[in-house]
Amino acid sequence: MRKPIVINDQEKFFDLDSEIERAADKDPYYKHATREVVAGFGWLGKLGSLLDYGCGVGQSLQQYFTVTDNYNCRVVGVDVSTGAINKIKARFNNTRYSFYKVSENNLEQLANTSMEGAYIIHVLHHTTDHEDIFREIHSKLVHNGKLFICDLTSNNLIIRFFRRVFILMPHFVKSKFNDDLVVDGAIPNKYKVNIALVKEQLERAGFIIEETGCGHLFVFIFSWLGKLTGLSSCNIYLRLYGLLARLEDGLLRRRLFRKQAELFYIRCIKA
Asked: Which of 208, 231, 236, 249 is 20 to 30 A away from residue 100, measured at CA?
């Protein structure tokens, strides 16, 4: 069993990752796994202009369009990966959409106070210097512009354990998990995200936090088990998954369990 290579160069990894075709929206667990993002996109609403920070190959952008039906807005997407930018340009060929490769959190392609809203989806755990990112986005937003963030915390001890086991079997995992970030036995470096620190950094950057929430305790693991065993095609298993999801929602109302949540979101406004 070969131990996977951890690639610290995020640009290099996501260039490789951009070459993989995925169809995560066909996953039976996709709706539940992305519901916080869907709600966040609903909160952003039909903006006239939108910044997609860490746009990748366009999964989040397509989801925003699906939720809002706002295909006529001006979109600017930025990413560190040349491969991802090339892929998203081909996927969304529209004169109102622009996509740029950026480095060191620099958004020089955008004029200050030129965007009505922005989102950052599952980017923070692949980056450092979060406050620099927030300050740069803040400068590009109009007054009262919206920013939505959704990311992983790595707080849940059980999920952390299983992920460490899974990365010892990269090729097996890849064969079972089409949406997992494994490229030829290599994985990207990931950083633990401190929610309290992120909120402090957002406020120092000039944002007013409107709402913070969390999600997911053990349902991620249950979906992994379904994929590993083939039970994902079983209606009884999927109904049990739904029951567990409702139980999870109840538990997350308690502070003790919220501390173990694997996912968080923040909605904030430019002051």
From this structure: 208
Tens digits of residue pLDDT in 207-262: 999 999 999 888 877 887 887 788 888 999 999 999 999 999 999 999 888 888 98
Q: What is the CATH number of domain 5-154+188-216+261-270?
A: 3.40.50.150
Residue type, 249: D
Structural domain spans, the chain: 5-154+188-216+261-270
H/E run at residue 101: strand 97-101
Residue that the structure tokens 């936090």 belong to:
209
CA 127-98-80 angle, to 5 degrees, is 20
Do the Cβ atoms of 265 and 148 come closer than 8 Å? yes
Q: What is the CA radius of gyration of the chain?
A: 18
Question: Could you count the other beta carbons within 10 Å of the beta carbon of residue 36?
Answer: 19
Confidence label for 74 from pLDDT (cuts 50, 70 and 90): very high
Residue 116 CA to residue 137 CA, distance in Å, equals: 11
